[in-house]
């Protein structure tokens, strides 16, 4: 017999909100295993104790924010609507079926006013990492880092051209000392102090979001982007660091500072790191070797001048400090320039009659010059690590750790696009996305373990 329900929507039922949420619901696990009590202590100085209207419970406010990131709800207005009709969301917030949901404008007001110029979002992220450490889900021994691009909330056709100062290299003083010491040991005159000239470059500045950066990379979309620099721990793929920069900042620039922050904030004893090819710079290799950290960095492909021998065909002998060309002729040391490169040159009288001259150099004086950085040994050490059995195993972990972390953030939590404009707002989005990813990982792991 065919029957249709009638007037079910207007029927009164005596039910408990607790019974309407499935026992295996993710939010139940989050509520059970994640301790949110620290939020009240973090925000207490931002509220007045004895004046003004009663505020919305900060715990409810931040749980609303977490819900938006848990389920990739990009609009705060939409988030309010979803909470009104979803009993699991109401249960998570501690609201009854008839309780009024806080207005969406409350979240945006607190972001623009109360939480402006504070470290509350960084503090929340750090506290979740500390909870993961307490549950022994973070080893702090092997860290994997990379960056991904986030499309800025800006039109790539609306921009102005500006000249800005180049980023000052943090290692320049150390390099100058190394060059002076190198020239002194080799009997060369000390270079005259170079006048500090602030180099400028022309960039595209978005008129919609001026703090974003115009990114142009091979194999990447072109336009205004931000970069999310992220580090994960190998043990359970818990995210341990998040740092956002404009899209035109090179991956390697913030890396050493962020690594140092993790070792200080979480007392990590890092033994190994795995990085992409963008981090294969001499200063990074040198620092990691000094810290005795086993570094595995992907190979960066260099394209030599077409028709000429590649640099790897010239073999370096450390004992004699010379290079040998494919025709078995030596290239001896000449000088060290102020940029930290040693120059090795061939004998033009020998090269003049060499049958391989056309494939070796096109210089008019028939002299072949090879350069080698004063810190090149550290880069060769990293190359050896990459080719070792342990290095190959570590590098294969990237696809199931850091790359998986970025994929989940973009597909499940809405990190593919920037919700708001400005570096601070994008940093908030990246931190909160990483925080909820860690919350899910902690809750799922502990629930399985029990």
Automatic annotation (TrEMBL):
Residues 165-192 form a coiled coil. The keyword Flavoprotein does not apply. Pfam families: DDE_Tnp_1_6, DUF772. It comes from the Bacteria. Signal peptide: none annotated. Keywords: Coiled coil. Residues 16-112 form the Transposase InsH N-terminal domain. Residues 324-442 form the Transposase DDE domain. InterPro entries: IS1182_transpos (IPR047629), Tnp_DDE_dom (IPR025668), Transposase_InsH_N (IPR008490). The keyword Nucleotidyltransferase does not apply. PANTHER family: TRANSPOSASE, TRANSPOSASE DDE DOMAIN-CONTAINING PROTEIN. This is IS1182 family transposase. It comes from Paenibacillus mendelii.
């Amino acid at each position: 017999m065919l029957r249709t329900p009638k007037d079910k929507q207007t029927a009164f039922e005596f039910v408990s909100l607790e019974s309407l949420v499935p026992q295996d619901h993710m939010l139940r696990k989050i509520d059970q295993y994640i301790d949110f009590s620290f939020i009240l202590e973090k925000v207490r100085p931002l509220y007045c104790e004895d004046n003004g209207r009663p505020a919305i419970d900060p715990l409810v406010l931040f749980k609303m924010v977490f819900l938006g990131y848990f389920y990739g709800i990009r609009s705060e207005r939409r988030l309010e609507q979803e909470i009104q009709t979803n009993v699991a969301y109401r249960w998570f917030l501690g609201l009854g079926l008839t309780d009024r949901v806080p207005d969406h404008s409350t979240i945006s007001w607190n972001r623009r006013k109360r939480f402006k110029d504070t470290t509350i979002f960084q503090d929340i992220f750090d506290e979740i990492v500390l909870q993961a450490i307490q549950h022994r889900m973070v080893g702090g021994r092997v860290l994997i880092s990379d960056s991904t691009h986030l499309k800025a909330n800006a039109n790539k056709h609306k921009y102005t051209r500006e000249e800005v100062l180049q980023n000052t290299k943090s290692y320049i003083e150390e390099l100058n000392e190394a060059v002076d010491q190198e020239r002194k040991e080799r009997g060369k005159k000390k270079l005259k102090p170079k006048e500090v000239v602030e180099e400028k470059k022309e960039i595209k500045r978005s008129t919609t979001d001026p703090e974003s950066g115009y990114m142009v990379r091979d194999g990447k979309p072109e336009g205004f982007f931000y970069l999310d620099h992220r580090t994960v721990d190998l043990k359970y793929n818990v995210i341990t660091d998040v740092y956002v920069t404009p899209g035109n900042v090179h991956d390697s620039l913030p890396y050493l500072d962020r690594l140092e922050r993790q070792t200080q904030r979480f007392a990590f004893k890092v033994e190994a790191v795995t990085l992409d090819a963008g981090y294969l710079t001499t200063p990074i290799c040198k620092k990691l070797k000094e810290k005795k950290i086993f570094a595995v960095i992907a190979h960066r492909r260099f394209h030599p001048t077409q028709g000429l021998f590649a640099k790897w065909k010239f073999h370096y002998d450390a004992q004699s400090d010379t290079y040998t060309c494919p025709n078995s002729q030596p290239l001896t040391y000449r000088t060290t320039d102020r940029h930290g490169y040693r120059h090795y040159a061939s004998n033009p009288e020998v090269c003049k009659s060499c049958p391989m001259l056309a494939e070796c150099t096109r210089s008019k004086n028939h002299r072949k010059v090879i350069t080698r950085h004063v810190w090149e040994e550290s880069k060769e050490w990293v190359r050896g690590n990459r080719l070792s059995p342990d290095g190959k195993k570590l590098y294969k972990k990237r696809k199931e750790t850091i790359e998986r972390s970025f994929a989940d953030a973009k597909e499940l939590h809405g990190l593919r696009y920037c919700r708001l404009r400005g570096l601070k707002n994008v940093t908030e989005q990246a931190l909160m996305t990483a925080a909820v990813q860690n919350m899910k990982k902690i809750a799922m792991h502990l629930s399985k373990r029990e």
